[in-house]
Amino acid sequence: MSSEVALDFHSGVSSLHDTHHSHDEHHHHETFISKYVFSMDHKMIAKQFLITGMFWAVLGGFMSVLFRLQLGYPDSTFPWLEDILGKWAKGGHITPEAYYALVTTHGTVLVFFVLTAGLSGTFANFLIPLQVGARDMASPFMNMLSFWFFFTAGIVMLSSIFVETGPFSGGWTAYPPLSALGDASPGSKTGMDLWIVSMALFVVSSLLGGLNYIATVLNMRTKGMSMTRLPLTIWALFFTAVLGVLSFPVLFSGFILLIFDRNFGTSFYLSDIFVNGAGALPNEGGSAILYQHLFWFLGHPEVYIILLPAMGMVSEILSTNARKPIFGYMAMIGSMFAIAILAFLVWAHHMFVTGLNPFLGSIFVLLTLLIAVPSAIKVFNWLTTLWRGNIRFTPAMLFAIGFVSLFISGGLTGIWLGNSALDIHLHDTYFVIAHFHIVMGVASMFGMFAGIYHWFPKMYGRFLNNTLGYVHFWITIAGAYLIFWPMHYEGLAGMPRRYYDYSIWESFKQFSDLNRFISTVAMIVFATQILFLANFFYSIFKGRKLRTANPWGSNTLEWTTPIKPGHGNWPGEIPEVYRWAYDYGKDGTDFISQTTPVGADESVH
Amino acid sequence: MSTVTATAAPTKLWGGGKSPFDVEYGKLMMWYFLMSDAFTFGAFLISYGTIRFSSNGWPNPNEVFKSFPFAPEGVHAPLVFVSIMTFILIISSVTMVLAVLAGKQMDKKAVVRNLILTIIGGIAFLSCQAWEWNHLHSEGAWWGANPFLNADGTQSSTNFTNYFFTITGFHGFHVFSGVVINIIMLIMTLMDKFEKRGHYLMIEKAGLYWHFVDLVWVFVFTCFYLI
Asked: Model confidence over B76-96: pLDDT tens digits?
């Protein structure tokens, strides 16, 4: 990262809120520590989130390669596995304990560290102040704390991998009794203690960040930036923050009860349990299902916490690169609002087969299927935005279109799984794995990639290499479908998830070739992501330099800042906003920036 | 905010360039934090309700909470002590309101006086809770240990005490944090921090938190002592 231009912005910084701490006094004498480590510049914090998220993506992705090795080649041995995993891969064969630990850590890391912190941490921090027209977040200090809580959570999670009994291995949802009883499995001992500490720190980080995003969007929009002139990215990140602020505390409560069950002899989640070796436990009166309710009250909104930022960025990128206004701007906001509300009302569809009252289940079926309505509205709006557009197929645009494709493919299987009767057959099979990886995992990754390709020039003043971007896109989209599409067939055939070895099952032997195929593609796709990372880090230092401040011909405010904005974003006054963000191709003009006043003879949109 | 003059174009509330709620960011964050915290307590209390509802029986609070400090053993004073605790906490909310009001009037002396009273109220509440916990502990109650029988005389599960200590403990921790915040506010007031700033907005935010903690107690009190 080369030195950023120090800009004088003192004149206007305190106009919005005079009680703001005078944090802007020392920026001309920034040290390495205050600039790159304990930075309070939202752009630097965004980069910190992004690069930390990348670290976790590589680790979590590599874990999936390791357990795919076991699934694809259950009879082979790989001596190098013993070199890196030690006793967890004696003789080059991953042990069952290690397999479950890998699956669990892969899920936890990808869902929370990569697709929550890495995605909304990066882009909420980066885009909210730039796109609403603010000098920085409402509280830069809390913003910094948010990152360092996340970082600490990561350190604790990382250390759990190295404890003697291994990391937690009871699945990323951490259901009791596996998560509540140290005697239940090796991973349920110290590994689980560290897991829960890490997650508690993560909740704090998410809360600090979320409060900041909400306050910034509501309070610090520049003059003329009414809520209905906000780019859809900001709406999406706003709803994401609201979801996080209201759902993570419920998970937190669940964790506190879990900590008491683990360490202080309570039985909130425990009743009538017999542990092999320890005998019958005295715990009585608790309910393991209670934990599932508390977990999924976060867990389902969490899906939208992951998905909404991707949706917002995709809307913005599609419109910019189709050179057309986004189709149905208000409908987009309305459907995101509907999704945010419904996100809180569907959690029990994760629990259809737990013994939930079937009548209650039917209500959750109805509410779940209702989500198809706003989702379909969004999909049709994206497609109609593309329709007859003057499309520029930049890597960002390709990833955005790929997102739409994946969201449709994965969303349709959601209609199957949202049905409590079909769920009797499909629950806990590879069908579920295929569904949520496509619709939430890969789709959101695509949204993230789209965002990185699109806003990299704003972050670093240079472009990513386009050719490598195309290679990255085509291998990843083909790979995503080749990995997860066949899993639908496996799931329909009843192949359960989370099994260690399918080759010993008469019913699932038929899939051994398919499993090997999936594993092979997974390795290729993982290698391609390393290619992307190489592109990313090379381009930070050596990428093609930006010559204009607005390379994509975009309307939003971030492109009115200098190529390398200093802390404070705009050198002079913050620009005033006169129009919405989507005046592309209006009255024959290619694009009209939000800062351009409405002309006298301009048509009304 | 400012009155709109006849000539100037009316500035829209949500038009950007100012806070639509006419509050600075910290107060907005406090409101959202309290919503978040309400979900934490909500989750606790709903969990409690779920488990209690699915249990065969539950101890009678009038029998469990019937002691009073320094009273002779065997005295039957159901809910008297906790009523006093609740009264103390509610009064501390009143003094907090007075502190906020005094802050708005830039009356430093009254702010200091009322903050001190609020802090005393908070500490008194925590002391009462400490006594009650200690007393229950001496009767054999703790996390994972419940000496009390169900109201119908049958054996009770430990979840009565599990939830009691966890939730009142979590609330007590909130009161403790509130007292610490109020002490910081008091020190800042005494150091003339707010006088120099020209407003006592921080006290208002601390007040929001304090009232929230009191409000939560009303629910905790209802769930554990009355129902």
From this structure: 888 999 999 999 999 999 999
